[in-house]
Prior knowledge:
Undecaprenyl pyrophosphate synthetase; magnesium; disordered N terminus; alpha/beta; globular; binds farnesyl diphosphate; manganese ion binding
Amino acid sequence: xxxxxxxxxxxxxxxxxxxxxxxxxxxxxxxxxxxxxxxxxxxxxxxxxxxxxxxxxxxxxxxxxxxxxxxxxxxxxxxxxxxxxxxxxxxxxxxxxxxxxxxxxxxxxxxxxxxxxxxxxxxxxxxxxxxxxxxxxxxxxxxxxxxxxxxxxxxxxxxxxxxxxxxxxxxxxxxxxxxxxxxxxxxxxxxxxxxxxxxxxxxxxxxxxxxxxxxxxxxxxxxxxxxxxxxxxxxxxxxxxxxxxxxxxxxxxxxxxx
Length: 258
Ligand code: FPP
């Protein structure tokens, strides 16, 4: 079967070796399954989010050690506000806990924090934690850890289109100058320049959807779906997802080179 969207269990690829010369520059992850992980253990859903935060720490260090340039993590979508208040409040507290405990490790690993999404709608304490972390890691030159917080892929495209329209109405550009490069630069990943598009998207927990995540940037990405819930995802799961990516033939709509 020629399915690009092949499901990959983390142990499937153990026989294959990781090719350190073909590590994707940008990996995006939809960290799904925290709630189900907790339910399975008869714990409240938020216990899954707490454990999920620990996984974020482990995977950040693992990704940085592998030489990945950008790790984009879907932490809170524009749709997640529909969850019960208690859960939303807990999720809003997580970045505060995360940065309070982890900024020294981020600096030690030369990791720079970046955030995409409408931060202005987050509680003040969460905004402050985010801005402090961005400032504290501003001098780091290694991997960019890009959190999507109150992020939606469609609204990102709408905002970029509005910005382009404004540039036309202000007489800065002609309509004909609106092209893919211009829109890419107007996306929230614009500052990542050549690393703005993930080569690999990973989604945990068995679901095979992109749920409004990086719709523009994922146009040519390889998708790897794993059955593990996010709190169970570990360094080996990451390596196996990359091995799976390395087995794909990326043609960008063209043909294989002879
Ligand atoms: C999806 O699982 C997960 C989320 C909506 C939250 C993701 C947040 C973390 C992993 C915590 C780390 C965050 C930071 C900022 C360090 P789900 O709740 O939808 O799981 P389910 O589908 O099993 O219910």
